[in-house]
## 1
Amino acid sequence: TGRHLHSSEAMNGCTLYPPNSQLFTDDVIGSVVQRAWMSNERIEDDEGDSFERREDSQLPSKSQYSRLKQRVEDTTSIPVKPAPSMENKKTRGQFESFSLGNTEDSVVIKPAATGEERQRELRRMRQVRYRKKKYDLARRLEEGTNKLREEVNELELRRRAISVAVPTDKSAWDVALKYFQVFRFGVRQSVADSVAPSDAQLNFLLSNMSEDVVFNSRCGAEAIMQVWRCQSLWLKDFELELRGLNKHSGNTLKATMTTSFIVSNRTLEKVFPHLSDKNGNRSGIWKSRIANALLGRRIIAHGSTYFEWDPVLGRVSSMTTQADLLTPVLRLLGYVEDVAVVFEKAIVSPDFHWKQVM
């Protein structure tokens, strides 16, 4: 019995045996009486003869059954250790340790550093933001590139249309195209500062315009140069851009263009002198407010120029040009009353005709 208890305790100490292993010891199993063969069971010997074995069944007696029952009760009364437990201890959201039943089997896990996890998360978020910035930059560059391609294609189509329409010999088409090339940025600064006009620009007018060429309400190549000189001096960053050239009727061509410039202090002084009213009255304050609203702003006016060709002389006999100044000024000021004040005493009309030049 001592050996049995010692063996049982050893088995209980091992985690590989179930807690009721005491019920399967040699003493318990050995005390079970073997069942007898059934009376009608046949046995065959080596020579092939068979006979029936009719021994009575051997059942345990009452005393044996009592001893067996007492032994089983004594065995089940032995205290059984609880099954090994897995104890999880949680601290700050992290597992510190878990136990397998015995102290020597405990495994301790150090808590993860919260600071390191936070740094790892911050690095991940930075990488996400960096990738998003790169993606947005690439998308903007792609959109800008596509827009530039469209503009290049549009300009190429315009160039081809103009080049196909222009004949090889000198004609109104050739003169009109050359005119916008020569005067695209107005009169050169050296021309405006000197007494003599630019030889290249004046020679172009003299060689391609008739002597009495009509330019709006003026006449002659010198009158055209005078208008261009004033525009170049009084309108900052002046630019004339050709947008299209078409045959209008008969010997007349129609060129569509945009005229752009910046309103400077000289523009207010020379073109809109009435806005520089220094009086402190209500009218002076109103005009000063309008002048401040226009100062430094770029005005883009859409217009057209008509070239009338004289086939006998092979020159341009008349030029009529106009541009819409009213719309961009109204867009800047927002009130029709203010626009009326701007053009009330200005030396330029809303259709970009100069009333007087120097």
## 2
Amino acid sequence: MVRRDTLLRLYNNLLKRREELEKRLSADMRDLGGHGTSGDIADAAQDCDGDEVSSSLAEHESEELAQVDHAMDRLKAGTYGLCEGCAKSIPASRLNAVPFATLCIGCQRLKEEEPNWEPAFQAGKYTHIGEVKLTREELRDPDLRDLSIGR
């Protein structure tokens, strides 16, 4: 498990990264659509290309910001540093390199190699269907009556 002083340092790094991402995202959003209508077709095409780059950067930064927020939530919940795939500890060296990592290297590799990869401790989480009780009104509903529950 990751030590308390390491967690505090990683938390501060996440806070700094979050602030950086928010500033960059804000700047990218200002750049989007901030062009006037003056100029010729070449200017408009260049503006369009610039908007596409700003949009792509904003999307990437927004995704990373969500990952940072998730990591901070995990820190507060006491699950930071545990792999979401196998529930084993993520090495501190990996967390130093990628502070918002949620998977150990082994599980990350599996996720990238196997398109239908599912975390081992969550596999089958939703495969068991318990008894379903329907009211008399629901049983009269032809859409619900035709469901193949429990077959």
## 3
Amino acid sequence: MISELKKLFLASVGSAAYTYEKASKLIDEMVQKGKITVDEGKQLSEELKRNVINKKNQIKPLTKDELISILNNSNFASKEDISSINERLTKLEEKIKNN
């Protein structure tokens, strides 16, 4: 579960970086084609950079306590639950063998 959350976090950061890169290229193309001025392109780039930095700062990795809270509020089986089920299963298998 932690691995999946880590992948999700990294994907969101990568997505933001990719979006910034693509938007920067689009701004450069618009400047080259004369659709916007160089100054407008710079302003757009700066605004885009600020937005990406703000979004990056809003995304933070989960703390251990937050992750534990999420897992506790989910319907995932705990180690104790699985251990208990394994014990019951072993006992049932023994009963079946003995009959």
## 4
Amino acid sequence: MNARQPPPRHLLLIATQSDGAENELNGLEAAADGLHAVLTDPAIGGCTDSPGLDAAQLRSGRVLRAEVDSAVRSAVAAAGRARATLVLAFLGHGQVSAGSRLWYLAADSKDGQSLDCVDLAQLVALAAGHPGLAGVVVLIDTCHAAAGIPDTGSLIGGFRVGASKVAVLAACAAHERAFGLSLSRRLAALLAEGLPGEGEFLPVGTLAPLVRDATDRQLAADFAYNGTGGVLWLARNRRHDRAPAGRAGTLGAETLAAALRRWPAAPPGPPPHTRDGLTALAEQAESAQAWGVQEAADGILAAMDAAAVLTELAGASLTTAQLRSLVAEFNRQWLGLRPGPVQPPEGLGDRALLQYLLEDAVLRVPVGASRHGALAWYLVAAAHACGRDPQDRLIRDWAREADAEIALNDAAKQYAAHRARDTERRLVVSLDAAQVDWPDSLSVCVRDGAVCVDHRHFPCPPDQAGVERTLPEVLDWAESLPSAAGPIDAVDLVVHTPVLLDWHPEEALAGMHLLGVEHTAALRWAGRLVEPRHFRGMNRKARLQLEQLRCAPWGQGPPVDRVDPAETVLDTLPADLARGRYRPAVLLTGRPAPTALRALVEAFLPYAPIVLWPRADTPPEPADWDCLAHLWDGLPAGFGAAYRRVLTGREPLPPVDPVTDAHLIRLADLRTAWHDADWLDFCAGYHRHGPAVPAPAVAVPAAAPAPAGPAAVPAPRST
């Protein structure tokens, strides 16, 4: 059963005052009625009241504890029998115990006592484990609401052994009070109006940020657990774009209209949007040698054909989130091969978004490139994303009919090569043994995904020159291991903040060439490799932050907070960070004095997995850093290409886009500590690897001159 043929949906909404609460909730019944109305609207929530219960009484404002418990158990049993999705909503008062467990107060509950209250987290876990339920969606509009979110351990066990789906939207954090039933009121308004640009179905994760934006005294929380796959949604989107299949999308329509304006003999009337109309126009334009019109019409038709194949191939497993991931992957793999990244406008529904992407692929073809190359890439990538064979008969038939068999083979090879590079082994060189800046030994390992497969210590003189002179030996060791499959292409260097700020390891001589000429060198902050106790949970939070960045709206530039060091008050910055006032990616727009730079970067590193700042020799005039918008989806790997472009001074060979080349040169003026999800995975398991094998001490003459090469900028040393 998929999202377009959803299971039945049952609703149990309970709203009650409590004799044990210190205040009465004004407008409780009205808020409950408003939420009930949208959730039972067939065009929105699609729910029916749980059978056998008095829905009006249960949201009347006075419901006893025994009634709450009985109603929940009855609703769970009924939903299980119907194999339905159960939507549970609790409005009223909540209190927390010392263990941060939420107790929902019924009409006869008492303050400070749990015996007459309802343990919501336990009820949700019991519901999730009941046989037959298609899923449980829970809304909690009480004080301390997030304390009612069940722990994952209670969901992965039970009689269903984790084969359940749960989504929770809570009005506020576990330590916060909730005000004015704002979750219920805001949610009812959002669902009644609909969300432009979102998909046909709205999960709680889509709605939570909008609720948070509308409430300034409480922070709504959302949680989702999916042990079975499929989509668990709260409501249908009234403003979902339901453009029928086989119609021109926005980009195709604009391109065709522009081509028609350049054709003096263009037929009157608006441009056609249907398959039949476009086919007739393409034939007419070919006869009149109006090549621009013919190419536009044929391109739209080709996009329609590819969209039909892709949707049939992927079926219900293709989601809007996967389309977003495909866009990012496309921009990364096609960087420099096209005149800029794909940047869909906001407001497109899922089918319209798919048509836009495929029209972009076929209508923005670089000179000399295959017309079907990018279309074939989308089919290959979508097949991988949905667990289908990229050589599926549907794709091969499409390629044969479109005369695109070679383009399909090239696309499959291109996609596989990029994915192979993503999974190649990397060398990790950690300088974390240093007390402040430079260590007297390097902790080195070969990283295979999130696993440390070989580990060794290398002694070195405790200064920049000593570390850099040891790097060739480290590279030789890594590339001579029995497990080595070839040269190491990427090197992660883990350093403390003083070294992080101004060390340019890509400029260090590593054999015959500088390190950055043949390797991608990435600096990582040592604090994330071994998480300090006072930053407990920092990396776990960073994963959630990176997911927020991945879901950032299109059309608004890169999701980066631009911080002007001259206008940032260092004394208040820690408090602002603790309040969550900065996004997960931070760019210092200027280069302050060394002391201020260190203070700023040290403050941001625990709170932002991505921190960027200008290098020391960057011109002082203001910069817009447009390079980030152009190259964002290709980062952080793009930094290696940028540094290599500047180090070698070689202009790229065609067909690299000159605009992309200019942006790469500009990007090289930035330094970064970029901790992506793969790196966080590695950090999570780093402390579990086996003991390192010490390398034999290598005598390094202190006075030996370093081989000639561009001088690396020394990092500031502590006194």
